[in-house]
Batch of 2 targets.
Target 1
Amino acid sequence: MKASRLKYGSVVLMFVALFFVPELIRQLTDQTDRQQTSAEEAIARYGFVLQEVSQELGITFVHQRCDVDDPLKHIQPQIAAMGASVSVSDVNNDGLQDFYVTNSAFGELNHLYVQRADGTFEEQALTYGIADLNRYPEGSSMGSIWADVNNDGWEDLFVYRYGKPALFINQQGQKFIPFDGTAQFPEWVNSNSAVWLDYNVDGYIDLFLTGYFKEDVDIWDLEDTRMMPDSYEFATNGGKNYLLRNDGGLGFTDVTQEMGLDNRKWTLAVTSVDINGSGYPDLILANDYGVDELFLNVNGERFVDMGPTSSLGDIPKSGMSITAADFYNQGEFSLYVTNISEAGVLMQGNNLWVPTGSTMIDDVAVPLYTNTATSAGVEQGEWAYSGAVSDLNNDGTLDLYIANGFYSATPNTDYWYDYTKVVGANSQVIINASNWPAMQERTFSGYQQNKVLLNSGTGRFREVSTAVGAFLDKDSRAVAFLDIGNDGSMDMIVANQHAPVSVYQNRTTEDHAWIQIALTGTNTNSSAIGASVTMQWTDAQGQARTQKQSVSGGEAFSSQSARVLHFGLGLMDSETVDKVTVDWPGGSRQVFERLSHSKKHSLSEASERSFDN
Ligand SMILES: [Ca+2]
Ligand SMILES: [Ca+2]
Ligand SMILES: [Ca+2]
Ligand SMILES: [Ca+2]
């Protein structure tokens, strides 16, 4: 069974050698021929084509929703709407990217897919000791992020739940054991996102963990139905967020309050980059039922919310994901935030915040933004969870994938009318779950089609999902990118609620060059999270081009893509890029000239680690 699946996978992967598996030839020929025809057209027109290959690669994960307590049963699909997540890491340091997907129902297992040399995957979560994480009272998994917590060169795993947060230390790629220094971890957080960042740049990666429902809410043993937001636009009763300082890889200290990050907004997503070039990583939060926040890191000593000044925090919406990306090849990060739009009911629109300059406030450089989502064609994403970024066609501009769809139930039914009645009511009504109308298997922004938004490079994006072979109308949540097979094209994993995970193999035009940079910190955290790379190259037209990317400790909605930075370069005459500038956390800089393209470069920080580990 395993052998034939392997063979099946490689056949589809290479689009050749259909002769070896007679049993499958008929169906496969039909499917492959049809796809190959359109595939060639897609490659010619868009520079790439996607193919859903989960079965062929041995990926069988199916997400199951969690149940909730009786007083919430009538709106269970809303309460249990999250929990399908994906994060990428190389758990065994063999240079092949692996990934982890979470389940939600009690008793259902999370899966770890370890990549084999032939590009197929083997499920190994039980062997590694990170499968059985969904049970009461520990909680239900909502997502995960990877970083090397103790700087031993092996990536460790943090799982956030509705329940007790959990950290697992990687034992040299063989297995994981629970971290024994979790004394300062909160007992219970209803968390939908977390991010790694070394906020004080001491070389140890710190953890920012967000709360959605308040921390005293247990959706399986509910004490009070007054646990919903107290306002649709300016809710003040969400879960607490936490900044947990990593003390030399041995334990964590809660520094939330002293760092100015106390907050009761309903945070759904967080990411971290050094947004103003200060050398210290900042925090950007997408909040439901409120405004988004831009916390600038002042010398690792405190954070200040500059959301209102920067414009990011101007208008309250239902923020669901946040991604920082250099969409316009400016050498600066724009911010993409997804929200909710439903024709005729609620048109929040997604936000694309593009930097327009900065202003100094109390010696802090505050970036200023303007929202260009409408003119860019990325405003409408329906009920949009993830807005995830990668250069899918290697043309040198970053593309967007929107995962959307809230709850697909009985076709041709609709919960929206009842929903608007309660969210438009006063605080005393909306806060109480018992006032929320029963959903009764009605569809609520369901059957929505995910979007592949291709960046033209001239400020406009075009939706090409069906044309490139990626039609998907499941209730999608998280999205992550990785290069399966290390062939220079970014493949994609989409985690769907109550459905199998979708895995897309990407085939890009061979005309387009690319380059990958894998960073390792020595003075700074070994995962190099927070380090940025500014790529400069000259294209075949003689145009000088630039793109900046940062190694991420978590982004979009409940996801983390591969830490290897992938740059598409488009058409190239030269054999090399011009210049690669690495800015490490803390502000030290290294420059590499004339690196050859269409290969992966592993670059280490120049100086040796200056602390014990
Ligand atoms: Ca691996
Ligand atoms: Ca480690
Ligand atoms: Ca630190
Ligand atoms: Ca592109």
Target 2
Amino acid sequence: MTTAQTQELDVQPTPLALLLLGREADPKSERGVECPGDLPSPSDPDLVERARAAKEKLGDKVFVLGHHYQRDEVIQFADVTGDSFKLARDAAARPEAEYIVFCGVHFMAESADILTSDDQKVVLPDLAAGCSMADMATAEQVAECWDVLTEAGIAEQVVPVSYMNSSADIKAFTGKHGGTICTSSNAKRALDWAFEQGDPSATKVLFLPDQHLGRNTAVRDMGMSLDDCVVYNPHKPNGGLTAEELRAAKMILWRGHCSVHGRFSLDSVNDVRERIPGVNVLVHPECKHEVVAAADYVGSTEYIIKALEAAPAGSKWAIGTELNLVRRLANRFAPEGKEIVFLDKTVCFCSTMNRIDLPHLVWTLESLAEGNLVNRIEVDKETEAFAKLALERMLALP
Ligand code: SF4
């Protein structure tokens, strides 16, 4: 596949349009369920005090997780911050906390439920906080894809590798079919492992659901060519691919992407280099291949934070990731003389992450403090068992 073809695919619309802030229902999506409670008004001047009081009342019974992309007004109440996998593990390491309030999106809360004990209850402050990327691969679509691979006579050679940013159903599919989960930090290790599961020259990987992380890892980190990768489009018959194309491919990339990182373009990189001479361009591997190829550094959210911590005073950085995080890092490192700007000129928040705001957090904490368990995220036992298998394979990666 050429870069131009990749770009062409990316401009097609997201299959599920984003819903307005938690006020509609979409049973086919992991997001879009109405918030059942009476939210406090966003203009209530006592919101911070109310959140503090409710959290204090709950004490050790509650543990609040804050994903890096959350708003500052929410992050201030997080007991710990991090990426989705780190947060799920942090929750599992706090068994005394009966309530895990996950300030993030739905698939993250599911992963926390899978990794925590049965006694711990995971709560998502706004049930409408989903992830558009996770929604791009449904269980039915992936089962259909597997049928296509079976008909092409290659299913036995295919190892699924699913990004953490996927629903519990997709993680369970991955576990059931001998595959592993990966994060943006260990995607190369996961792919190395997958290709070792059979004859490396015949083995193929079905990478779900982020085509960009799959392609960037295969091409940039593992030396494959763009032609080794094909994109399976679940909205086309047979994924839009012939059996010959599937048999020739090493990487079968699901046609999914992050609506936030997918916005950065080669023009954003060229433009920032012109505006800020000497700038270091540092992007997340969920960005398009041409953006990653043009960047100076590429890495996960944790990598980005560590790179900026280690950066010398006076250095200049343009960061291609979610805006809440970039702003926070810019403020944090400004006193050290590090200039940090957002890679693109247009605002680029994760709209679903932003659904978790102070009114939702206050409503959640006050409800829990009053003994009302709200917005619990619970994965059924069978799904949990297979999803856990896939997660455990990731934990055992060398
Ligand atoms: S930043 Fe992208 S991948 Fe992460 S939750 Fe938002 S839409 Fe999903």
